[in-house]
Write a structure and sequence with these properties.
The protein is α/β, with parallel strands linked by helices. The protein is 34% helix and 16% strand. The chain has 9 helices and 6 strands. Helix 4 (69-79) crosses helix 5 and helix 5 runs parallel beside helix 7 (128-138). The longest helix is centred in the middle third of the chain and has 15 residues, at 83-97. It is globular, with a radius of gyration of 17 Å. The termini are far apart.
Length: 222
């Protein structure tokens, strides 16, 4: 009866899932456009920040573009309360990072935060589950009370690069800075486009003594 009213369907293709599948069917999982810079050695993501901020490593699980399958999953995660998608992708990336020597010196994982107003509206930070699972795989602490968003912003989707950077300039702040002094932080987010949001966060975190930064996201636009 429960499945009749709340069918267990894939968030990508909307077909009914079979036993053992959660949120993503085997076909959609196979068709996801892998980025995986941590495995192929590509600097495509870190190059976005060249000359702007120092980044140790940067990786994304998938490529994202309008109407592709990645967009469907990210949209479901952010706007349709499909929080398990974040957990699934966090487990996926976490297992892979745990096998990469480049990520063995990560000391803590920090999520890009939501403003408290947005958090109340949505009910959760869509990056939280993703980051928590990566932290679990790397056996490192997940810290969500250092980086905070102090200014609410509108959607970033249609903003040009310069506008986004300017908008994000005073959006974030840090507290409890002593928690991450002299640590290598993995900053996680759902999607990277121009890199403006990660850059704004990084500028605040890099003001803390001895901090080094790497980035990991669910997807990167292509």
């Amino acid at each position: 009866m429960l499945n009749l009213f709340f069918p267990n369907i894939c968030r990508g293709c909307h077909k009914e899932l079979i036993e053992g599948e959660k949120e993503i069917c085997s076909i959609c999982r196979h068709n996801l456009p892998i980025a995986g810079f941590h495995k192929n050695g590509s600097t495509e993501m870190s190059d976005i920040f060249y000359g702007r901020i120092p980044v140790v490593h940067a990786t994304a699980l998938f490529y994202f573009k309008k109407n592709n399958i990645t967009q469907k999953f990210v949209h479901a995660l952010k706007y349709k309360k499909a929080k398990r998608i974040g957990l699934i992708f966090g487990e996926w990336l976490g297992e892979e990072l745990a096998e990469c020597k480049e990520y063995q010196d990560i000391d803590a994982i920090i999520p890009v935060p939501l403003h408290k107003k947005k958090l109340r509206q949505r009910g959760y930070n869509q990056v939280a589950g993703f980051g928590e699972k990566i932290a679990l795989a790397l056996q490192k602490p997940y810290i969500d009370d250092v980086l905070v968003k102090i200014t609410p912003t509108t959607s970033q989707v249609f903003k040009e690069r310069i506008s986004r950077i300017f908008t994000n300039e005073e959006v974030f702040a840090v507290q409890n800075a002593s928690k991450i002094e002299n640590k290598h932080i993995l900053l996680v987010d759902d999607i990277i486009t121009t890199g403006a949001t990660l850059e704004a966060c990084a500028k605040k975190l890099l003001q803390i003594k001895g901090v080094k930064l790497s980035f990991a996201t669910i997807a990167i636009t292509k």
